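Final report, closing paragraph on structural work. Over the funding period we assembled a curated collection of sequence-structure pairs, and we close with a single example.
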Amino acid sequence: MKRFTLAAILLSAFGLRVWLLGHQELRGDEAFGYFFSLMRFEDIIKQTLTLQEPHPVASYFLQKVWLGWAGHSEFALRFLSAWFGVAAVALVYRLGITLRLGDVRAQAAAALMAVSPYAVWHSQDARMYSMSLALTICSTWLALEWITAAWTAGQLRRRLLGAGYLAISWLALQTHYYALFVIVAQNLFALISTAQLSPLQIVGGGAMAAAPEQRPYLRRILPWLALQIALGLLYLPWLIQAQSILGGYVGNGDSPLFLSMLTRSATAFAVGESLAVPQRWLFIAAAGLLLIMGSTRLIRGNRSSKRAALLLLLYLCTPLLATWVGSLQRPIFNERYLIASTPPFYLLIAASLPKVALPLAKLLSVKSSLFVAWLFIVVGGGMALSLYNHYTNPAFSKTIGWRELSATLERMAAGLPVDDARMVENFPDPTLWYYYTGPVEHLVLPPAPHDADGAKREVAALGQTGRVILVVQPADNWDNSGIAQAALSMRYRLLAETQAGPWPVQIYTLPPQTISPTHQEFQNGVKLTGIAQAPATVVPGGLLTVHLRWDLAGATLNGSEKVFVHLMGPENQLVAQSDRPLLVNSTTEFTSSYGILIPATAPAGPYGLLVGLYDPNLDGAPRVLTSDGADTVEIGVMQAGE
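Its predicted structure, as stored:
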């Protein structure tokens, strides 16, 4: 039965982590990690140090190898995190057993980790946090096993455990710098427990027929200290290389007050971040009561329970407080950095349960047990609601709109020569370039934070590129004053703007150097002398650019004349149009550009392009006729679809 229950917990953990794994779009950090992992191993190290990347390289190395086998889809990219998330569930159970919490409590902790919205979120996130979680749990378990083996096992077992501890702890430190806080918690536990307890009590009591000799404290703690020195020496070469990163990283979080830190941490651990704020308090209170009850039960228990309480409280509080204290100096506090504190949180909650499984009737007859059961139901309900929102509610999605944006960019560049279009971002967000895989090159304006001169140089370097498609993103730390638009407007004309997800997409154009000559004259003396269009076909959902060369020499104008360009569909119906004033400058000869956003529902078939003049201030017949009496000029015929 025990194996069946544990298997069910692990299968549930796996199912929750792979269900809709590739459904949500990548967020910026996931896309950054993806492109980072595509580099050669030596370049990953070099760029980590050069770019001051605030995370070590182990997860990028592993992801690089994995993507070479599994491909580059969102599912494949996130599967490693899902796998480590399931491993973390199994390791929490193993840690609970090693702490002598009992099978029921260990399984309850594993079940809480399995369904935790916070843990599931990180298990469906292509970053190092889930990997860090599993490695720090494994490191703590091995540390506990090694301390026990130091008094109960032979030399071979101690050496194997020591080697395993060094390898896993070194990997944890190479995955996330905050793994150090877990190592600190382990050291505090080793120092305190060894100082306060006899060797037999360190093991937990009752495990041996007789206690080993009562050695002095220094002799008892020295092997552990030697193990830590070895770990430090292994990690020192990287630490020396990365010291500027650790000292120079300014953070992308905030600096909360202590009470706010506690509230946010409890919310993340108890029900994740997929609930509306007013809904969270009930579940936080229930989880907090269970945490207090579990801690109290352990502290009041036997020597083994006290030892478990010491480790779990240090394991919970040390990373949490260290992260918060660090944030007081720089804005670095973020819920995702607290991932290492989740295992002791769930183990302490599970400790509120009776150590021995009771029949249901007996359990319900005990008031305290009934209260604990109701609290578990409340916390479980909160987790279930949060998971439901995580999977189904777009308001709690990581990001929304990248796929739509990519499709929009595809349409806006469709039919154009590759060299005649450029994609532009006003912020270097790698997520777009994960989703947009078309051939059109892209650049960032400005090329560096707030670099207006650099933006002007980049625009000048575009030469005669005819269409620039700008994705406008909020970017206070990069372009907070419209530098990209200002630089483009010096050479290009803003032709059209559309919305793709949350982002405005602006299309700028430059008239071509060569334009097909024509001769059409209107009765007011205005002459149409040249025509060009791009692309040559109608792209549903795309943009048709029409360039018209005008000659106003000798024309009689009121100053209110307008130009209309109509796109007529297969059944001669008006599909889309552009209307603009005729007089755009003071010269008599000039080229005007007109943009027609084509509906995505435009049917296949032949299309006609008509141009004409009208004066809205004229009564009766505002259209200006051509010299031969027509009210429009057909300037092109094109095709849409097959």
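Residues 198-213, 357-361 have pLDDT under 50 and may be disordered. The chain has three domains: 9-248+262-396, 402-509, 516-640. We thank the funder for supporting this effort.
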